[in-house]
């Protein structure tokens, strides 16, 4: 039995949910997949799959074995990639995962010039708010916000991500500029929702964070949607500077200064936007040139 092939077939089955579809994905006969999985289960002395007439699923131990198999196969791919690419020109598929609006506003404008410089690199870009596991998900570079990640990966700070209160100039002309937290009660809020929670506004008072008394006009997980609502005079919003730099510069939007300290959630760290990558992967030419390029042009 070729154990690495068996691991690969198990990954295929987990992805597509059947032996026949997995065989198509792996480009081998169904019998090859079936015999390989049976031999693997026999050697391990454990059932990795739950079989039914309509679907094939993983057992509890099968899920654990699948996770470890993915790590092993990914490590082998990385090792072979380093050997093959060590002295080659940057080439291959570069997988990037970025925050949706940051990707649209800051990253996308750079990609045309990057690909003109490195035509043998194919960009596979995913725009998502969900946290990516670089190794397990096969991501070469991730761009995420929040506090600085732990030391298992390299985190290069790109820009401050502090959210500040803002409004459109026309909104201010219609409804006035709030001068205190208490006056926010006369206005409506455009509120951001992360994958984990709604970012209601809080104010620091007497050493504690308290939720701001303001009615909500709209909740969205899209900064683009909130930005459009701002420009349509639907309310006030808390947004980072990088997301509305053009609108602030041309005067369509303005910051709303208040004497009190506002936060998007109680005790939420100001945070930054980081470019994340695995240190060992930096030796791969396509990743090295991309990291260096983004360090230069995303600062």
TrEMBL record:
One of its GO terms (molecular function) is DNA binding. Gene3D superfamilies: 3.40.190.290, Winged helix-like DNA-binding domain superfamily/Winged helix DNA-binding domain. PROSITE patterns: HTH_LYSR. Pfam families: HTH_1, LysR_substrate. It comes from the Bacteria. Residues 1-59 form the HTH lysR-type domain. Keywords: DNA-binding, Transcription, Transcription regulation. Belongs to the LysR transcriptional regulatory family. This is HTH lysR-type domain-containing protein. It comes from Zhongshania aliphaticivorans.
